[in-house]
Amino acid sequence: MRELRDAYIGRVVRGTSFADMGGLWGTVNEKVLVAHAYGASAFTMIDMTPLGHELWQLFESRRQTLRLPTVRCISDDVLLLAEAASCPQFDVVHCAGGLYHVPDPLRFLRALRKMTREFLVLTSVVTATRVQNEYGELRLPAAAALFLPALQAQEGAIVRAYWCRFVGEGALGVTREVTTWRLDDYAPWWWLPTVEALQAMCRAAGFVQQDGGYFWNNNASVQLLSVQTSG
Question: Which residues span the domain enclosing 139?
């Protein structure tokens, strides 16, 4: 069975220009290979990692090994790139793992909107409206998003115990403590939205939901979004 993200990319990418946002993490999680397999015509990788870093070298080695065509590589902060006078645009954009790492998710979604001509495939971790374990119960309305720096003692213990089952101690801000939250620091997890809140944020940023679904034990949601047109 195809991964849901791959299926969505396959539905919209043929003959298009494709950009993968933040795909260097883990290197093998990039979606350029998927876009190529489904017939995209031009490819770009965008990541904050400085050019020359080992991850870029590993990506290039992977590209050559898999005999992929040339991939344009952009090292930049997506927020700044989208707000530049020369903001690049792509027919189809894939972005996974970015939204919950930024202090201002609506600014992030607006940046993705500026760079997307036709379709965005967006993945984010999400929270259920009810989380219960040995530390207690946490209930949220469907419209909510957990702002992780604001978690109180019991709330933090409940969230930490839940996510430790899936990420161990590796999630800064969730299962590992942040001593100082800084607005320029994208390493921690800042937000855990419900899927309803995530979808509403996407609409506010100018996208229309075409499809969506859960994966990773319902801890992540992928949305296939089109660009909202006027009129």
Answer: 127-193
